[in-house]
Amino acid sequence: MGKRDKQKKNPAVRAVPTPVDEHEHVRNPGTPLELEWVRDVRVNRSAVERRTASFPGRRSIKKDWQAAWLLRAIALTDLTTLAGDDTPGRVRRLCAKARNPVQAHVLEALGMADAGLTTGAVCVYHEMIPVALEALEGSNIPVAAVSAGFPAGLSPLPQRIKEIEASVAAGATEIDIVINRAHLFTGNWQAMYDEVRAFREACGDAHLKSIIATGDLAILRNVAKASLVCMMAGSDFIKTSTGKESVNATLPVSLVMIRMIRAYGERTGQRVGFKAAGGIKTAKQSLSYLALMKDELGRAYLDPELFRLGASSLLGDIERQLEHYVTGRYSADYRHPMT
Predict the structure, then answer these.
(1) 137: pLDDT confidence band, cut at 50, 70 and 90?
(2) DSSP labels for 7-19?
């Protein structure tokens, strides 16, 4: 029996794209702002860094299971283009890749040819929403739009709210907003809460992802507090970064945010999603984030309704690793273009 035939019979690889939780995900309605809880938040930085520094080595995933987890990472990816030189053609190519993220011969060898594997979403600027919707028609892949003065979050509040409303009206079903970091640095938690709550209302039925821009927040306690306030205000997801900061997603800030999601869930009974974005470029990095999520929140969180990886170049490396798994050889990067 050849290697490909053995792989087709591998249940670990074949079962990847199906949802991991049978219960319908209920959106986070938010809670009143609990300032005492926010002020009491503490983070043991040395413990966080100790856990995450050893994590990739302790959670090494090999062979069949690695292929399965990489397929899951594809289903969790928000394929993103947020460049100043974006064009309709680039967005159409990105959407084509979202619909068919892995070459057909690789999926066939993995027993996944008929699984309907796609990325979790496509994320674009408002201007490109109509192009993305047209390119993704019939695929059920969500279109996410960045909004609310992205990436600085410093435009007038009425303007930021209108941006969200315009993107929802244009057809975006997910809205990625960025918080005004000045509220955090001045300790004005009520203002942060009120703004995110207004964004939540402007989203209507669209899901709200709140970017806290961890690279700008200096200390992990700020990351934890901002995460908590955004969840209280009704965010469906909390997201690490815009991708424009000098430092974007890291395992330490992700661990802090995930622990706050767990604390919020234990206290309110609500499940909030997590999105790691910016700087995740290799398949190996994506596996660390999946393993961290599973360890901290359980297998139910390895689902697009609750976990996303925001990336632009990650998919190319994942596809390359999957082809190596199938053929035993590494292909050239240019064989896996993104846009």
Answers:
(1) very high
(2) HHT-HHHHTTTS-
What is the maximum span of the chain, computed from C-alpha positions, in angstroms?
66
Count of Cβ atoms closer than 10 Å to residue 36 Cβ: 7
Q: Which of 97, 275, 303, 317 is catalytic?
A: 275
102 alpha carbon, distance to own chain's centre: 19
Backbone angles phi, psi at 177, to 5 degrees: -100, 165
Confidence of residue 10 (pLDDT cuts 50, 70, 90): low
How far apart CA 312 and CA 333 sit, in angstroms, is 14
Strand residues in the chain grouped as ranges (E): 77-80, 121-124, 143-147, 174-178, 207-211, 237-239, 273-277, 307-311
What domains appear along the chain, each with residue ranges and CATH number?
A: 29-328 (3.20.20.70)
Q: Please enumerate in sequence order all residues whose Cβ is within 8 A of that of 122, keeping only pairs 6 or more positions apart, or say none.
A: 78, 79, 80, 91, 94, 95, 98, 132, 136, 141, 142, 143, 144
Rounded CA-CA distance 108/97 in Å is 17
pLDDT of the residue at 9: 47
Active site residue 176: yes
**Distance from C-alpha of 146 to C-alpha of 209, rounded to nearest angstrom:** 9
Catalytic residue, chosen from 78, 97, 239, 303, is 239
For the whole model, what pTM was predicted?
Answer: 0.91
Amino acid making up residue 324: H
Question: Is the pLDDT assigned to residue 267 strictly greater than 70?
Answer: yes
What does the pLDDT read at residue 18? 47
- 8 an active-site residue? no
Mean pLDDT value across the chain: 90
Give strand ranges (E) for 28-133: 77-80, 121-124
Catalytic residue among 176, 216, 303, 317: 176
Q: Among candidates 207, 211, 226, which has minimal Cα distance to 28?
A: 207
Please report the sign of the dihedral spanned by the C-alpha atoms of residue 155, residue 157, residue 161, residue 164. Answer: positive
d(CA 164, CA 172) in angstroms, rounded, equals 9
Looking at the DSSP bridge assignments, the partners of residue 213 are none
Q: What is the distance between the alpha carbons of residues 133 and 120, in angstroms, rounded to a whole number?
A: 14
294 is an active site residue: no
